Amino acid sequence: MPAPAAGRSPAGTYTFRVRVLGGAGDPAVWREIELKGGQTLEDLGNAIPRAFDFDDDHLWSFFLSGKPWDRATEYARVPDPESAGGRYKRARGLRVADAPPRREFLFLFDYGDEWHFGVKLARTGDVEARARYPRVVASHGEAPPQYPDLEDEEDDGEDWSDEDDWDDEDEEGLEAWVPGLALEPPSFPPVELASPEDLEAAAAAAPTVRRLRLLAEWTGKGRKFDAVGGLAAGDREDLAGLLGLADRAGVEQVVAWGRQTGLVRVRGGRLVPVKQQQHLLDEPLELLELALDTLPDVSADLLPVPMIERIYPDGFAGGLLDLLTLLYAEDEPVPADELADHVVEEHLLESLTGVEELAGVEELAGGSADADEASRAATVAEVGQVLGQLRDLGMIELSPRAGDRPGDRSGAGPGPGDGAGLVRLTPLGTWQVNLLLRAGGAVAPVVGEAAGKDVDELIEAVADYDEQAFKAELRAWSRERGDAAVPELAGYVRRAPSSERRMLGLAGLAEAGPGAEAEVRGMLGDAALRPHAQMWLVHNGFEDERSLDPETSALVLVEVMATVLEAEGPAGLVAHLEELGPPADQAKVVAGLWRAPTPRAGAVLDALGKVHPSAKVAKAARTAAHKLRSTGGHG
Length: 635
Prior knowledge:
By secondary structure, the chain is of the alpha+beta class. The protein has helices at about 40-50, 150, 170-175, 195-205, 205-220, 235-245, 250-260, 285-295, 295-300, 305-310, 315-330, 335-350, 360-365, 370-390, 425-440, 455-460, 465-480, 485-495, 500-510, 515-520, 530-540, 550-580, 585-590, 600-610, 615-630, and strands spanning about 15-20, 30-35, 60-65, 75, 90, 105-110, 115-125, 135-140, 225, 230, 265, 270-275, 335, 395-400, 420-425. The protein folds into five domains: about 15-145, MM3350-like (Structural Genomics Hypothetical 15.5 Kd Protein In mrcA-pckA Intergenic Region, Chain A, Roll), CATH 3.10.290.30; about 195-290, Orthogonal Bundle (Arc Repressor Mutant, subunit A), CATH 1.10.10; about 305-440, Arc Repressor Mutant, subunit A (Orthogonal Bundle), CATH 1.10.10; about 450-545, Leucine-rich Repeat Variant; about 550-630, no CATH class. It is about 45% helix and about 10% strand. An eight-stranded mixed β-sheet has the order 5-4-3-6-7-1-2-8, with helices on one face. Strand 9 (about 225) and strand 10 (about 230) form a beta hairpin.
């Protein structure tokens, strides 16, 4: 990646004015697009078509000289490492903070129609904590039609709104991943990412990255390469030994990957390194990202029957993202056979249309005459191959399930290695999938993003976090706020709008530092805060449990249970109570809840009395509810 220009920091925002040039466009039509300085020309290039309501399914390039097809200054969406002497550069390789600051450069969209846009830096600014970038911040004029010739044609009478051409399922499929189209983008739980240093180390250790680096170094000044047979037999055996690969297919895959990433290319009948890409040897994380980007192309060349490419609307890339998303959404490892079953049941079975579309599948499945079974077997096998590629990229871990024996997957598990029954993302994989999801418009928060928020925004942001993510976010926020963290959280607790938010503020104080105890003790004189403060002091080891009176214990328990009941319903309340132990222990706790000085106790006891599966616990809840009503309840 180029070094930043002197005096220009990627920490702020960069706003570019993008205007239509020539052709059917009007130069008076423009949009201003704001990005973070650390985002790249790829982010800007993806945002420009959307800003003008263009279909983004086209290739594009930036030309920093302003001259179309000036290869020396081109940054392309999809570089071609075999062309122009390897001088193509990836748009993702140049940060917007490093783009020309004083002159207009060219964005050429759609190599066929050649839409030209002038791009010039308008101003810089500060990052807004709650903003999502890139974003359109100003516009002028109506965008020209992308396909004016088509729009000028008269209606031929065909009804394009017919249900057979466009149904709800089609729309949902598009909405899932096209930025700007989804009415409600998919949301995922927050994740805690590894440090940049740990990510770099993990990328360097990934087998695929290590092999690509070895390939580039081994190539040296060039190796003989035949367009049909590839490397000479002796060189192939030598490379296989260096890479630790036993079969020819594995060596060919590494070579194909090296060519796709631009590390090497074929020139004059020889496999030679590409000088402009050798910086990747010292940047393992960037090389990993590039390897993942080119995985669909590598797989398409090597798979005998590309089933995933056929059955997903977005091809292999869509299938890859689908599998990675399933893993990202789970806290626990996922059985490999469940991943394969998902692909088969949710995608393959809907796409089967006939034997004629399955040419070659029967042979891959062992000669089966049943086209559906052959397709299923081929898909399962391909999922296993994909998992193997992701493992070698360092993105997933494969482990046996309890009871599995090496070599025994009962024919169902698609794991690429013996006994590879369970799959989970590595920290490197979590980081990479988070980038993919956010680039696709999904809501995929990262722990630490709230560090710059004020205390009210912080509590709102973490209200739905799980316990682990909540604590990590509060620790990150407290580090950022320093000595101000404890008094700010304490102030929030005193003015919290609800009991739930008050408890969140108190939980945050437990992560904020040593000054929290004194602040909480200062709350004991407030009748409304005293029960929560007492419970906090006991829970955090500053007081003995014997210091709690029954009403205090009951109040805090009821407040927690009422919150669970409102959020998760009666079933969630029962599940929460069952965490306290066997029915006898639960009944003992429930029997004392009528003492809680809060009107919420009635709803909790009524729900438990009606739905708890244990007769003993349900009876204790009904008895406590009767005592509550007999004493006039709590208002």
